[in-house]
Amino acid sequence: MKQKKEVRLSDIAKKLGISTVTVSKALSNKEGVGEDLRQEIKSLAQEMGYKPVKNNAGLKNGITGNIGIVIPSRFFSPNYSFYWYLFNHLSTALLKQNFFSMMELLSSEDEKNCTLPRLISENKVDGIIFLGQTSTDYIEMVSSYYSNFILMDFYTPNPDFDCVVNDDFFNSYLITSYLIAEGHKKMRFVGSFDATTSIRDRFMGFQKAMYEKGLSANLEDIISDRDENGLLIQMELPPRKDLPTAFVCNSDLTASKLIGQLVENGIKVPDDVSVTGYDNFLSEQEKTIPLTTIGVEPENICNMAAELIINKVTGKPYIKGRHLATGKIIVRDSVRTL
Length: 338
Hints:
Layout: H1 9-16, H2 20-27, H3 35-48, E1 66-72, H4 81-96, E2 100-106, H5 108-112, H6 118-121, E3 127-131, H7 136-143, E4 149-152, E5 163-166, H8 168-181, E6 187-190, H9 197-212, E7 246-249, H10 252-264, E8 274-276, E9 293-296, H11 298-314, E10 322-325, E11 327-330
Helix pairs in contact: 1-2, 1-3, 2-7, 4-11, 8-9
């Protein structure tokens, strides 16, 4: 006999022509949904045979001794080894405090359909770390069922969600100010503005440093480096006569790809144009010339995230909200003083 397909929140939402988040709020009796619509949603859910997920948000005191790390699968493409690097450091940080890590990759389909991670629905862990940009709708849906989670390397507009991020705005402000001090005035930011909160913050830091010196830094001048799925693309470079004196890239990986494109076009770095990165992380096959960048210590952000989630799930006092990890400029050979 063919097994009956499990009814998802997105199935109910599609029937009513509303958002999955609205369905989630209605079924979990959260505010923000009118009473008539709430009852309509609940009736349809019952009619369709929807089975609610049991809320295990109260897990404390290390019942399993496991912490789940949920990563959108797009960040585990060959272009994103940095997240594997972070996962390893995060696992080590958790193990030092006697917690084991369990990874689950979140597919684009499950993220779109707001399907809970199995680590939550099957009560496998005491808490969850969402690592890497995950949609606001998805995190809002999870919060309707589960509270023992934090966000890492991104944040949402909801101030109730605890997160650990690098101080991207200030770090980008620092490296742009360094370039200005080296004589650079005509610069372009490289990074798709709408891709992640960290890229947006890095552009805003770049823009602040430029505006303070009366230099141009417009949104329309950004050079995109990835598609709507977050995968790196061939960048559209300005004509040689319109090249800036420096490109400020949102990551070392983007900087590496950009340098490759420049070299293919006969443009030398840093003789013809300077390039900076961010992260201080490149695999051996991605390395080009020694790159001036922002160094972020993975141990710092991972230790902060491990301490935050463990304090949260064990009921220990902790500071709620947004936690920032600092970085520093690392000067190498990809920037020329003008």
